[in-house]
Predict the 3D structure of the following.
Amino acid sequence: MMMIALAAVVALASLLLTRALRRYALARGMLDVPNRRSSHTTATPRGGGLAIVAVACVVIAGSGMAGLLPYLVVLGLLGGGIPIALIGYLDDRLGLAATQRLLVHLLASAWLVACALWLNPLLFGAGWLVPWLLAGLAVPAVAWLVNLYNFMDGIDGLAGLEALSVAAAAAALLAWQGAEDLALICIAISAASAGFLRWNWPPAQIFMGDAGSGWLGFAFGGLVLFSLATGAMPVWSWFILLGVFVVDATTTLIRRLASGERVVEAHRSHAYQRLARRFGSHRPVTLVVGAINVFWLLPLAALAVRDPASGPLLLLLAWTPILLACIAIMRSLPAD
């Protein structure tokens, strides 16, 4: 009952804060004006994802002060997440160079990995060579998650519904495993995303912006690492739950690199963007992704929790149809 009450309060706070941010953005002229690379047709306020960041960070900080979360989890998520949100906000307002954003993403990711290692020095195994190599790979992996979440925030409601559904599913699986502390964070993210979605559901009245999308990618990266550090949930389950975003974004990046395109330039070549143009609406695509998360990925993630040894096979099973669908869409539907 306490968790339900917390979720309701968080959702309401996020809803009201998103409304306030929308009014502020309209008053200050902070609008996302459509261009040839946009998936929307009308000027729309941006920056609503700050509501998710603010409300979730308050819950994380408060839970840490109340002794409900390990202080290293709080330090990792806030110490790295706040700079991620800040650089995203500055990029929304001023337009920063990709190298500036990437530097902050890598530093924040390194901080997160350091906190996870401090929590569990054997996070990546015993010895010294392999653990250091894995830690070195974890830093760009988290930074990639930050960026891919931003890349996938290209149509109304998609990034918000992904956060809501993935975090809610993870909360249920973590609670099943007795990891109520990390489940608390997931509930905060899910509920805050639900409040934001009231204003972002197609047709969106405000966009999430880089501050919100980058922070969500970082938060999920932190949850993966801290779940691994505490043994709360197998990493395979997280990879399965995030399958749609990881597969679409990574496939698109590889295709663009292979064709010699500039990957830092805005584009509309993701599978979900092509589908949205094909349907002439964002809503069907957003709903399909939500359905995949709930009816396909969640059951497989639960099986991976129950039998971690089968995790790699379940991950392959989960990702293969998504990958094949992305490839088919990219081959059959134009990028623009």
